[in-house]
Amino acid sequence: MDKLTLFKQIQEKKSFLCIGLDTDLHKIPKHLLEYEDPIFEFNKQIIDATKDLAVAYKPNTAFYEALGAKGWQSLARTLDYIPNDIFTIADAKRGDIGNTSRLYAQAFFDRMNFDSITVAPYMGVDSVSPFLSFEGKWVILLALTSNEGSQDFQMIQSGDGKPLFQHVLEKSQEWGSANNLMYVVGATRGEFIAEVRKIVPDHFFLVPGVGAQGGSLEEVAKYGMNAHCGLLVNSSRGIIYASDGEDFAQVARDEARKLQAEMEELLQKFCK
Amino acid sequence: MDKLTLFKQIQEKKSFLCIGLDTDLHKIPKHLLEYEDPIFEFNKQIIDATKDLAVAYKPNTAFYEALGAKGWQSLARTLDYIPNDIFTIADAKRGDIGNTSRLYAQAFFDRMNFDSITVAPYMGVDSVSPFLSFEGKWVILLALTSNEGSQDFQMIQSGDGKPLFQHVLEKSQEWGSANNLMYVVGATRGEFIAEVRKIVPDHFFLVPGVGAQGGSLEEVAKYGMNAHCGLLVNSSRGIIYASDGEDFAQVARDEARKLQAEMEELLQKFCK
What we know:
The structure is a homodimer of 272-residue chains.
Chain A: H1 3-13, E1 17-21, H2 38-50, E2 56-59, H3 61-65, H4 68-81, E3 87-94, H5 98-111, E4 116-119, H6 125-132, E5 138-144, H7 150-153, H8 164-172, E6 181-185, H9 190-199, E7 205-207, H10 217-224, E8 231-235, H11 237-240, H12 248-270
Parallel strand pairs in A: 1-2, 1-8, 2-3, 3-4, 4-5, 5-6, 6-7, 7-8
Organism (chains A, B): Belliella kenyensis
Protein name (chains A, B): Orotidine 5'-phosphate decarboxylase
Family (chains A, B): Belongs to the OMP decarboxylase family. Type 2 subfamily.
């Protein structure tokens, strides 16, 4: 999927919502445990209930790995079930030397047909490039994350006054384009998003940290939106675990609908 | 496993060899493809042939993930097969916000009983600490890697003249001790290992990059060894793919034996 196709979907759905499929056996409604593959059944019903409101789904691979081979199967089945025109993100935060990154890319791009994968930048160019060499696939590189530990290294200033996350943004633009490279940019502080947008005017940002983690959607849009929207804002728990009863999918839809309505307004206001 | 137990095994085997189980269906001997689980069968024969020479085994998780749920099963079977007194490393380079890192830790420490996992530092304290809270388990944190891309960010100097990898070494020592935290330190340049050893006198280093990647074992020992050895030196392809015939396990043993013999001399010379 290229940038304009993604933008077209954003315009059609009036939404830049990404739904995080952080699916946890201990949190899904009890009645689903009777199914042969409860994780897939949960995802399937969430997808059915929200696919006209979300432009992306983002399974966090840790939740599936924690279940071993069976979890891996649930993940593959989920990927097969997501409609092809919806952008899919393997939130895997991989990154290793070249031949190893190539294998991770095969696992997520070829075997499971994800559109994109989140990648950690620490090991540099040859850990990221193998993912970028897959036609039509995307890297979403960690730049400025929304967790407490982002202060430890991402904010360290180099001799020329630039924080590490800025080096990551600048250097990585030599490796890929706005058509195969996005960035993870945390939503906890609006002013940082504005700073990142100045450095990277054209690329999409994947923004976690709205909702449970406390960021404001309006601030994200105000400081981060560009002429092609340029934002995918993720919500996981706030949508998928809004109810743990038999009505979970309907309640998830209601929550997604609220975010989509807010996004529709923000697109009108800031996407120009 | 604690540091002294690991050192005791190093003394008994006169070896600090870690064997990388980067097991690839396209590279293993053809006759193994008849088995129901060729990946496990290959690992089993390699382990049988080398377990008196190696103090650690390090499966690279990418090779298993590339095979989907089946690969994940081969990995779990391999872990069950490795004798309990040998240190096991999940070379997974994980790292995510707290609740996600906790799930990765469960996947590798509880479900598969690995002794340790490699972790990427970019997201800081709350991405690393969840792994450190598992009693008797280890984090092996990426510090200075041996690949070309290590130059991109790891060597960036902050205002006070310290490269990023030094910040990672110093900061992370607040999070764990020499009994649950090791570092990945590349072997491509001896003088860097000496520098890292000055900053971190007591911790173990996992050293990739000897053999196929070109580092010198003698230099690594000279600059990196401490009174408890403090080194696990990995070799993958140079051992496990030394032959692709029916004699692969015996030839792997011969290669491991050569490295062990060299290590025995280096322990006598530098471990004091």
